[in-house]
# Entry
Amino acid sequence: MKIESYRETWVEIALDHLTDNIKAFKGILSPETALMAVVKADGYGHGAIETAKAAIEAGATYLAVAFLDEAISLRKAGFSTPILVLGYTSLDTETIEMAIDYGITLTIYSKEAVESIQKLAIQKKKVCRIHLKIDSGMNRIGVRTAEEALQIIAAITSDYLVFEGIFTHFSDADAIESTFVHDQFNHFMKIVSSIQKKGHTIPIKHCCNTAATIAFPKMHLDMVRIGIGIYGLYPEEHLRTKISLKPVMTFKTKPILIKEVPVGQTISYGRTYTTTKDSIVATIPVGYADGLSRTLSNKGHITVNGHKAPIVGRVCMDQTMVDLTEIDPVYFNEEFVLFGDPLDGAISIGEVADQMGTIHYEVACLIGKRVPRIYINHNKIINSTELIQS
# Structure
């Protein structure tokens, strides 16, 4: 694939892989269980609009984001699919009016929220759908008891405010052995049962994130929320045996300089690396401002034609140096892969995350906006951001 851009650093997003991942998840769901695609944080760094489109075409029937502005961006892009804001939404009049006007489903966990949203929905004569968040042990947002939940639901007195769903979030569904998931699920279902016994109908009950969807099929309920999994990443390695996923993102660049560096020379800021022999060092136009973390200085790697080349010296804001001495001659038009699919000889995003002391969720989200996203389908470019193609 030939890519030309002002700076030859880019991320390839394989939408056909995302499609395959959605189908893999649908393959473990019953026909009665819907799939919600989580595209918050700009689709975990993959691009919310393109990934949401691919997810819907593959069978997702609901979208989820973290904040209202993310949801409105999707509406402005033409999405009519239901969109749930998973987190907090301000109760000021202008914000709620925007949510109602754009038909966004809101998460609520207070009586005040019901009263504010309901008042404006009535005034505008427009329906607003809400999902009640239950805190089953995450201790983040949500109500803890059935009594609290029933008080909130009782405040719904108009047909313009629709109690569409109820949900909770698991804190360690990705653990190898977790009894707490069952504790959380039982807590959630007791509250659901209490609400239903009072005669309230709950069309959509959901609690499973990616990890729980894979590991706890009996908890799927009416809908599951798949985030990191649709991008081909496993919440934890032990889940790999239960479902086959394909990495969607590959981070690439090309060298801007390849030169000989004599023995005894230092490289980059702080002089933290000294060559121990005559070396071949390449400079690549990517740095920590692009998401290549400075923590990878002197310990990270890139791959060239499947061969590992170590990062030498400190990662700079815009440039990084790698040692090509042990690799056959490398040319300027060759692609350097910062991470990608191990089946293609690349370093996995999980390995990069381990070297950074973090999780792959963060690594994907760190890739900056100035790095173009190249959307491909079966190795053909179908769309891109800020790119000159040839």
In short: The chain has two domains: 32-231, 249-389.
